[in-house]
Task: inverse folding
């Protein structure tokens, strides 16, 4: 079985030619996949019936991902889906919408995709990390999440404007499928979104960051730092191993030098753990003068006994960084009440853990 969403345009051409069809059949299939969002091959009406039958006979399919849960935040700006994959395992995808900047403009619609079922990195504050690792997702399953939301948006006359690889799993631990998904999503004859509209977030697998820098892509990179020192980071990210905070910053610098894209350091702010004034100063000292951008993410309480810091502590942390010349933003909290943090919905639905907010 091959999902048509797995094939890059060049591979699609090769496939149709091998099946004795003219080259333009590939464009007909691609147009249908990325503009009409068919659920089955029989819905690709541009193709002659006989060729549709051939595709089915040869084992081609169109995604088998099923939506099992959908929840929308009260303000209607965040929608979270639980999708069941071919082998019935559930993964999450989130749509976050931001109002248009201009009166009659379109909203910014960012899709957050998962790349693995579970995650082996075991970060202590992350619901996905606490559920353990199940399996890597295939490129077509990663793309399928975007397509699912693209269809929902297109029914409202809207479209996907950004994609972030910040859902369940560690994208760089599923390197080749993640890259294939990026190629499918950015290919002008594929989904066709600009490379600059995609950001990959990583816990910091250094060899893979260096490899990514060589891919000749213009995608954004976010490195999840969470601590200015190794002792605390190794406690928060138990699999950090040999990778020191210094190594991560250096890897970010190399990515910037190679691609020209500035790296963002993500920092989940956890009350009483990594949110003190002293730690803010330590972080500021580490990052000042190197053009880094820090994205502070006030914790979404999920796993363990971790809490979100009070608003005033978040602002104080930001102020210390800002006053030291470190570029810094606080992530807008979206969808907290619908369990929008990575891995949370799946955890809630499966009832695997006690969610203390219930
Ligand atoms: N594995 C990758 C990408 C997925 S997690 C990574 O770790 O970067 C995406 C982001 O969500 C990471 O920065 C992660 O630290 C953050 N995150 C995970 N659990 C969170 C929580 N409970 N509250 C706030 N941010 C969280
Ligand atoms: Fe995995 Fe990222 Fe969660 Fe860590 S924060 S466990 S790397 S998904």
Result:
């Amino acid at each position: 079985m091959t999902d048509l969403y797995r094939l890059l345009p060049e591979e699609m051409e090769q496939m149709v030619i091998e099946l004795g069809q003219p080259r333009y059949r590939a464009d007909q299939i691609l147009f249908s996949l990325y503009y009409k969002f068919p659920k089955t091959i029989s819905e690709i009406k541009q193709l002659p019936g006989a060729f549709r039958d051939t595709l089915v006979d040869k084992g081609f399919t169109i995604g088998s991902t099923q939506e099992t849960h959908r929840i929308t935040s009260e303000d209607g700006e965040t929608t979270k889906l639980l999708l069941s994959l071919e082998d019935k395992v559930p993964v999450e995808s989130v749509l976050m919408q931001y109002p248009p900047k201009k009166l009659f403009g379109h909203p910014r619609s960012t899709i957050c995709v998962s790349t693995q079922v579970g995650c082996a990195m075991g970060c202590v504050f992350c619901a996905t990390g606490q559920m353990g690792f199940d399996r890597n997702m295939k490129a077509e399953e990663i793309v399928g999440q975007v397509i699912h939301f693209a269809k929902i948006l297109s029914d409202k006359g809207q479209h996907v404007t950004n994609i972030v690889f910040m859902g369940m799993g560690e994208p760089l631990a599923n390197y080749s499928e993640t890259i294939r998904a990026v190629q499918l999503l950015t290919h002008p004859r594929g989904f066709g979104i600009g490379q600059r509209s995609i950001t990959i977030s990583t816990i910091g697998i250094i060899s893979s960051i260096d490899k990514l820098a060589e891919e000749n892509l213009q995608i954004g990179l976010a490195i999840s730092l969470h601590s200015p020192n190794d002792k605390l980071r190794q406690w928060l990210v138990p699999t950090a191993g040999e990778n020191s905070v210094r190594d991560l910053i250096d890897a970010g610098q190399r990515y910037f030098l190679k691609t020209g894209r500035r790296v963002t350091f993500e920092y989940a702010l956890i009350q009483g753990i990594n949110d003190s004034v002293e730690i803010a100063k330590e972080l500021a000292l580490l990052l000042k003068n190197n053009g880094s951008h820090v994205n502070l993410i006030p914790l979404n309480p999920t796993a363990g006994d971790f809490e979100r810091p009070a608003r005033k502590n978040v602002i104080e942390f930001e102020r210390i960084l800002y006053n030291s010349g470190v570029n810094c933003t606080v992530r807008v909290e979206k969808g907290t009440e619908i369990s929008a943090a990575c891995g949370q919905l799946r955890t809630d639905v499966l009832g695997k853990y006690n969610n203390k907010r219930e």
Residues 119, 121-123, 126, 128-129, 169-170, 203, 342 surround iron/sulfur cluster (ligand 2) (CB under 6 Å). Residues 139-154 form the longest helix (16 residues). The chain has two domains: 2-61, 66-357. Residues 207 and 275 are 29 Å apart (CA to CA).
